Amino acid sequence: MIPIEWVCRRVATGSFLKRNPGVKEGYRFSPLKMEMFFKDDANNDPQWSEEQLLEAKLCVAGLTIGQCEVDIMSRSTVAIFEIVEKAWATQNCTLVDMKIEFGVSVKSGEIVLADVIDNDSWRLWPAGDRSQQKDKQVYRELKEVTPEAMQMVKRNFEWVSERVKLLLEPQASSRVVLLMGSTSDVAHCEKIRKACASYGLPCVLRVTSAHKGPDETLRIKAEYEGDGIPTVFVAVAGRSNGLGPVMSGNTAYPVISCPPLTPDWGPQDVWSSLRMPSGLGCSTVLSPGACAQFAAQILGLRDHLVWCKLRASMLNTWVSLKLADKKLQACSL
């Protein structure tokens, strides 16, 4: 374990107010306020600055905690908070602040989240109302521990326990509909579908040509507009892409063109996806993975589980780049 407690705050309350006189309770931090405390019971876990942590040169499981490691823990704390915050928002509950700790894997040498996140880790205010708080702070603020007071604490913990189960349930179904001009585009569509699956997005594959059968294309479009499920249409058409523009001109749903370009005619064919008539909002994304990510960003606005997967993916990408840079610097030295 790394003997540092990381605290992430969205709303000013508790000890922060004592250490920062003049700040009113309820002040909202955007971006999030980060603090760290050295775990030392004898000295009441003093607050540390980043500089103090770096100068301490802590060594845990053979890993010296330097700038790279501090940055990874700081960035991870923010991402973890935002993911939990987004989940609790589906229950109309404000995640006020949260504390977590990290450790070093003795097998891989990686920094990992090494904490149990529970009702002792955070402050939760239903509807943003401090008087309704459901976390362990209720127990801490008891003037007298009585059987009645403990029953109230128990009910609060039961309330949290029941709602935690709901955090992993999708709040809205969503999907990506892949429209391909011919079955020769199946391989390209499968790449998009695989990438969508990493975000938990179901995909439907259909074959239709806006040039050869526009009436059927519009019938398929209406089929998915009629059930009220949030949908992103992806048009996969090579050569002259009429599919994306026709869909965009006839639906209020988002449309993404992801043409399967070929080396011979690709530079010419792509213009049928890029040059749109006025009044069309069809976007063009060439990479199947990026296309899936864009669809997830759209649907994640309504589905917190999709949004959380996106946020975690962003963190993992950032950490991998940070570690790659550290490794390269070590090689250069």
UniProtKB/TrEMBL annotation:
Cited SUPFAM superfamilies: N5-CAIR mutase (phosphoribosylaminoimidazole carboxylase, PurE), SAICAR synthase-like
GO biological process assignments: 'de novo' IMP biosynthetic process
One cellular component term from this protein's GO annotations in UniProt: cytosol
ATP-binding keyword on record: yes
Pathway note: Purine metabolism; IMP biosynthesis via de novo pathway; 5-amino-1-(5-phospho-D-ribosyl)imidazole-4-carboxylate from 5-amino-1-(5-phospho-D-ribosyl)imidazole (carboxylase route): step 1/1; Purine metabolism; IMP biosynthesis via de novo pathway; 5-amino-1-(5-phospho-D-ribosyl)imidazole-4-carboxamide from 5-amino-1-(5-phospho-D-ribosyl)imidazole-4-carboxylate: step 1/2
GO molecular function term, any single one: carboxy-lyase activity
Keywords of the record: ATP-binding, Decarboxylase, Ligase, Lyase, Multifunctional enzyme, Nucleotide-binding, Purine biosynthesis
Keyword Iron annotated: no
Record PROSITE patterns: SAICAR_SYNTHETASE_1 (PS01057), SAICAR_SYNTHETASE_2 (PS01058)
Pfam families on file: AIRC (PF00731), SAICAR_synt (PF01259)
Signal sequence residues: none
PurE domain boundaries: 174-321
CDD domains named in the record: SAICAR_synt_Ade5
Coiled coil (UniProt feature): none
Family: In the N-terminal section; belongs to the SAICAR synthetase family.
Assembly description: Homooctamer.
The protein's name in its UniProt record: PurE domain-containing protein
Organism of this sequence: Oreochromis aureus
Gene field: LOC120434429
